[in-house]
Design goal:
The structure holds three protein chains of three kinds. Chain B is mainly α. Chain B has seven helices and one strand. In chain B, 67% of the residues lie in helices and 2% in strands. The relative contact order of chain B is 0.07. In chain C, 61% of the residues lie in helices and 1% in strands. Chain C is built from 16 helices and two strands. Classes of the chains: A alpha+beta, B mainly alpha, C mainly alpha.
């Protein structure tokens, strides 16, 4: 329950004001695409929020049942379009699990580099757009300035800036170009000190703290009940990250890497001495913590990429040759969840022994994350609705598929 | 070329505006439009005050009535209205009563105005429009000191009236806060 | 000024008639032409001011956001970008929602604009002896604060008549916010008025003559605090970030002007920039010495009304030049404050409506009230202020009743000065 305003159901006024039903979206500046929220408001106080989804439904899963797994890769790009690389990776790993495919060492490190860069790009958008939700425009452009450089790197690697189809079943469509890793390291060296600026602009900004602390508090129990995942649960203090706790085929990708799962333990975030302290107003599980977790995860990703580039150059083997387009799949089924920027992104495949899978399924992390929104928004102010939805950082392409 | 009392001309302009918008208030059916016409009417009245050299009263009129009262009125309409645009229909009986009261007030005011000797001649009217440009005597008068009448040191000020009005406003504020306060519903088993 | 136009008319009449016609100095013609000239000049102050400030805002925003802002239209710095945008806005379709209250919807932008313009009539741009002001009111400070609050009326009408819930929310917020912030704003504006002993802004400005230590900002610690409170409240009362709740993009789409397009929309914008500048001008006059620069250069040169240069050259010219310099001074100061508002807008997130109200009612109003009392006590104890200002007895306002001589005869509340007639 948000601590600032009492539940409208137990508060009574002598002077009654008219209740209003307001459509926030699907065309609204802060609904991250085409989310439609129906708000029941009493003046500025929101008594009920109902999310309506489906405006971006493109039958992606059904299409997947008519294409071979490699042909379906471009469709995964368009699910979470802010983290296309991670979607590619999730689907590829799922099919590889079915195929029991062994990835060459070099390809494994390449995937870590690309996946963590994708996570950074996605979190940067999440951070910038969150600033936009709270009414400050500049951090958005700063975030996009940095993301632009990541996209430049991606473009150099695969030719595309948004829908990459780069990581694919069997490895990657191509190896990294010559000199790419130097550019990547140069970017990281430039980017790492800049993060402190974002902390001054948003994380520790007094107005930002006022707008996010104690707003939309998600208790760990509720987070588990609703099936939330990713930074949303870690913001509630749940120490769970599939990169460490997932299935072996996924965790083996991160084998030998040093990184920490970002979540508050004993009142402290890992490595938090280097970054601003948690303000007194903030409560574990509120919007501020969800935002902070994303900011710290970016730092972890930087460390991971640095290690991965080193490993990449040391390791032998190829980047992993993609499987044939029409390769027959073994009979059976496989389901694998990976840690996408927005949480546990699951892909499932059922094969009857043909090249085209019989069933394809995607489990969206944003879908479950959005499901807590009515709980978090009950009794808050209208201005808090974008703050809560923004802190959940949903992407409608992934929810509607 | 004979001298034109252009102040008189402006007086007529503002007076006509005020009367016209006052009529519009009466005959409009939407509350917000009424409020809008009332704003224009009161603003025209403020114009009359400025014309009479009473800058302070004019600004006061703008601030309190136009900027304060009417804004709150529309605010109330917006918050409590059931439908989008509230319409009001005035019954003929109400119109009749209103007309009678209005006519009586008009007769009274016109009678008082005609009884001021300085206002009877054109010359008096002109001199009336150029009082000393200052709000200080007014404010001092409200505090009890009649600096505008230094020759009569024991002239009564308006302190009591001022205080009564202030206390009245305070009572109204407390009452409003009492009405608008939030109460906790006793028990709800649902 | 009216006499000047009537003199021109008189010359024309004299020449045409061969010396038979003459025009009285207080002829209506001169008054009307004077009024027209002043209105046109002030309209251009708003319109051209908005043009410049919108361009400046984009440049400032661009620089803050690590980009260039407009660069193409009108040469190197994109000077004419706003003009191009204005032309685009004029050519846009004038849309109105089907369910809207047409009359109020169309009238609302003009109400806002008229209120913004009205404040300029009492706004002095330079001080005595020939104040650059359309109408020198003896209650100018009060008048401007009162008129600033009227702009909200257009916003409320716009929100109500749009038949859109977002617009309604926006105007409700604006109404609550502006009505609340008028209180601390007025309290803050009263402090310099009290120190100067006059609500006439020309007098308030002229009492801060001399070095910058004479500014009311540096009069005592209380006024220093009051200035910042005033600036905060001023930002809030003209709906600038972080108090721009009425048009909060991420929450209310565009707030009260959601349904507006084209020229009507741009009227709201001009009104916003107009009142931004008014609030900043008022701050500059009340606290930052008005038209007096940080160093009294014109005084050293003897260009003031009682200076030797003014005395030795033909009457009025040096003082007029001095006023032009003063106008540049005050406009620069106000422009600086406007830039600070822009800086805040592109840096800070937006507050929530309850936080905006808390800021006003729990912080700004009590602080302003305490500072008001503090400044009053300070003035009583140390009339020359912290910086030991030079006393300016000749400028301080003197009321008729203070002179103690002939009383103004009062008859039923209206003064009739018999001797003068």
């Amino acid at each position: 329950m948000p601590a600032t305003i009492d539940d409208p159901r137990i508060i009574e006024f002598d002077v009654r004001t008219e209740e209003m039903l307001v459509n926030m979206g699907p065309q609204h500046p802060s609904t991250h695409g085409v989310l439609r929220l129906v708000l029941r408001t009493d003046g500025e106080i929101v008594s009920e929020v109902t999310p309506h989804i489906g405006y971006l439904h493109r039958c992606a899963e059904k299409i997947g049942e008519n294409l071979t797994p490699r042909q379906w890769i471009p469709y995964t790009d368009r699910m979470d379009y802010l983290a296309g690389m991670n979607m590619n990776l999730g689907w590829s790993l799922c099919v590889e699990k079915l195929l029991k495919y062994e990835l060459p060492e070099r390809g494994r490190h390449l995937r870590v580099i690309i996946a963590e860069l994708g996570r950074m790009a996605s979190h940067l958008v999440g951070m910038g757009a969150y600033g936009l939700d709270l009414g400050t425009f500049s951090p958005f452009l700063y975030a996009f300035r940095e993301r632009e450089r990541i996209l430049d790197l991606f473009e150099e690697a695969c030719g595309a800036r948004l829908t990459y189809s780069y990581l694919t079943v069997g490895g990657a469509t191509a190896d990294l170009p010559h000199g790419w890793t130097d550019k990547c390291l140069a970017f990281l060296d430039q980017f790492e000190p800049v993060i402190a600026e974002y902390h001054t602009l948003l994380t520790t900004n007094a107005i930002f703290v006022k707008r996010t602390a104690k707003i939309g508090i998600l208790s760990p129990e509720m987070a588990i009940d609703y099936g939330c995942s990713g930074p949303v649960t870690r913001g509630s203090g749940i120490d769970f990250d599939l990169r460490r706790d997932g299935e072996p085929i996924y965790t083996s990708m991160y084998e030998g890497y040093q990184f920490e799962v970002i979540c508050e333990r004993n009142g402290h975030y890992p490595n938090d001495h280097a970054y601003p302290a948690v303000p007194r107003e903030a409560v574990l599980g509120d919007c501020w913590h969800r935002f902070y977790v994303r900011m710290l995860e970016v730092v972890q990703s930087i460390g991971l990429i640095r290690q991965a580039i080193e490993n990449y150059h040391r390791s032998s083997g190829s980047h992993g040759e993609p499987i044939k387009l029409n390769q027959k799949l073994p009979k059976g089924e496989a389901y694998l969840e990976t840690e996408a920027p927005r949480g546990q992104m699951g892909f499932g495949i059922v094969s009857r022994g043909e090249a085209i899978p019989w069933r394809v399924r995607a489990r969206s992390s944003s879908f479950s994350n959005l499901a807590v929104c009515p709980e978090l928004c009950r009794g808050c102010l209208i201005a808090d609705v974008p703050a809560v939805v923004g802190s959940l950082d949903v992407v409608m392409g992934e929810i509607d598929r | 070329m004979s001298q034109i009392h252009w102040e008189t001309a402006w007086f007529y302009v503002f007076a006509l505006l005020a009367c016209g918008f006052a009529l519009a208030v009466v005959f409009a059916s939407s509350i917000v439009r009424m409020a809008f016409y009332l704003v224009l009417c009161l603003a025209s009245t403020a114009g009359l005050f400025f014309l009479a050299g009473a800058d302070f009263v004019g600004a006061m009129q703008l601030m309190i009535y136009v900027g304060g009262t009417l804004v709150l009125l529309i605010f109330g309409v917006m918050l409590t209205s059931q439908a989008q645009f509230v319409k009001m229909r005035t019954g003929s009986g109400e119109l009749l009563i209103a007309f009678a009261i209005g006519a009586a007030l008009f007769a009274l005011l016109a009678g008082v105005a005609m009884n001021v000797p300085e206002w009877r001649s054109a010359e008096g009217a002109i001199s009336a429009s150029t009082p000393p440009h200052t709000a200080t005597p007014l404010a001092m008068g409200l505090l009890g000191a009649r600096v505008d009448r230094p020759l009569a040191p024991d002239a009564a000020g308006y302190l009591l009236v001022f205080e009564i009005v202030s206390v009245h406003l305070l009572v109204v504020l407390v009452g409003a806060a009492y009405l608008a306060r939030a109460k906790r519903r006793r028990i709800s088993h649902d | 000024m009216a006499e000047f136009f009537n003199y021109l008319l008189d010359c024309g009449a004299y020449a045409l008639s061969g010396g038979r016609w003459s025009v009285a100095p207080d002829n209506l013609f001169g008054v009307v032409v004077t009024a027209l000239v002043q209105v046109i000049i002030l309209l251009h102050v708003i319109a051209v001011g908005a043009l410049i400030f919108i361009w400046l805002e984009r440049k400032v925003a661009g620089r803050i956001q690590d980009r260039l802002g407009p660069t193409r239209v009108g040469g190197k710095f994109g000077w004419l970008q706003t003009l191009a945008d204005g032309i685009k806005l004029i050519t846009k379709e004038d849309l109105m929602p089907a369910g809207a209250d047409g009359f109020l919807f169309k009238a609302a932008p003009y109400v806002s604009m008229a209120a913004a313009l009205a404040a300029y009539f009492a706004l002095p741009f330079a001080g005595s002896p020939l104040p650059f002001v359309a109408q020198q009111l003896n209650v100018a400070a009060f008048f401007i604060v009162a008129v600033l609050g009227l702009e909200v009326f257009g916003v409320i009408l716009a929100g109500y008549s749009s038949a859109s819930k977002w617009a309604l929310f926006g105007s409700m917020r604006e109404a609550a916010q502006v009505v609340s912030y008028e209180v601390p704003l007025g309290l803050c504006a009263v402090v310099p008025v009290m120190l100067a002993g006059s609500m006439d802004l020309v007098v308030v400005g002229d009492t801060q003559r001399g070095l910058f230590t004479n500014w009311y900002l540096f009069h005592d610690p209380f006024t220093f605090v009051v200035f910042w409170v005033y600036f905060t409240c001023g930002t809030a009362s003209v709906n600038r970030a972080p108090f721009d709740l009425a048009e909060a993009e991420s929450e209310l789409v565009a707030g009260f002007h959601t349904e507006y397009s084209g020229l009507r929309w741009s009227f709201f914008f001009m009104a916003e920039y107009g009142s931004m500048f008014t609030v900043s001008m008022l701050a500059a006059i009340l606290f930052l010495g008005g038209w007096h620069g940080p160093l009294p250069v014109t005084e050293w040169l003897g260009m003031q009304a009682d200076g030797w240069l003014e005395y030795s050259t033909s009457p009025g010219i040096a003082a007029y030049l001095c006023n032009l310099i003063g106008m540049t001074n005050v406009v620069l100061k106000a422009g600086l404050l406007v830039t600070v508002m822009m800086w805040a807008r592109w840096t800070l997130p937006r507050l929530r409506i309850d936080q905006v109200m808390t800021t006003c009612l729990k912080y700004c109003t009590p602080i302003a009230a305490v500072m008001f009392v503090g400044a009053a006590v300070w003035q009583a104890a140390l009339p020359r202020g912290l910086m030991l200002r030079t006393p300016l007895a000749n400028i301080a306002a003197s009321e008729p009743w203070q002179r103690g001589a002939e009383p103004v005869v009062q008859t039923s509340g209206i003064a009739v000065d018999k001797e003068a007639r």
